[in-house]
Amino acid sequence: MKPARVLFAVAGALALTGVGLKLGLDSLTLVRLAILGAALGVCVRDDLHERRIPNRIVLPAALACSALSLLDGLRASTLLGGFLLLVLLLGLGLTRPGWIGMGDVKLLLLMLCGLHGATPQALVFAIGLAALIAALLMVWQGKGALRLAMPLAPFLACGSLLALLI
Predict the structure, then answer these.
(1) I need a labelling partner for 22 at 20 to 30 A (CA). Which of 92, 100, 110, 141 fits?
(2) How much is the pLDDT for 70?
(3) Whole-angstrom Cα distance, residue 141 to residue 13?
(4) Domain boundaries, the chain
(5) What span, in angstroms and rounded, lies between the C-alpha atoms of 153 and 150?
(6) Which of 155, 62, 154 lies closest to 116, judged by CA?
(7) What is the pLDDT of residue 77?
(8) How far from the centroid of its chain's Cα atoms is residue 67's Cα?
(9) pLDDT 10s digits, 96-150
(10) Mutual orientation of helices 55-71 and 102-115 as an angle, nearest 10°?
């Protein structure tokens, strides 16, 4: 693994685990947040530099987070809002591929497995942050900013962190 990817993975794991420690969460949740944070960190790096979300990171991390959630006694009702968002974004990704990529949809699946009920809030924060940056780009670059494709993984990672904090 490239040193930059390792650095991003460690930073992501430390950020989410640190919030979990501050909140006094149990050990299984801390491990789940560390896995989620590490995967989000690598995805942020890859989305920024390569414009892709790697399946070989997202899918095993989602599987591990799911297993830890089952061990922790997760209720299906906790995931309902996040699952509905996932289905909505999957439909949007299939009908309007220029708006959201399948990698971003898979990243939302990882967030659903790792954040549980906080996934809808994380997505709202992520969209808000992306809209704020898009507005600033419009002010700075004018209508030319409309042609820019922004990577979503950094916003989804920030939204995840904010959803845990708030």
Answers:
(1) 110
(2) 82
(3) 34
(4) 3-165
(5) 9
(6) 62
(7) 66
(8) 18
(9) 877 788 888 889 889 988 998 788 899 899 999 999 988 888 888 877 766 777 8
(10) 20
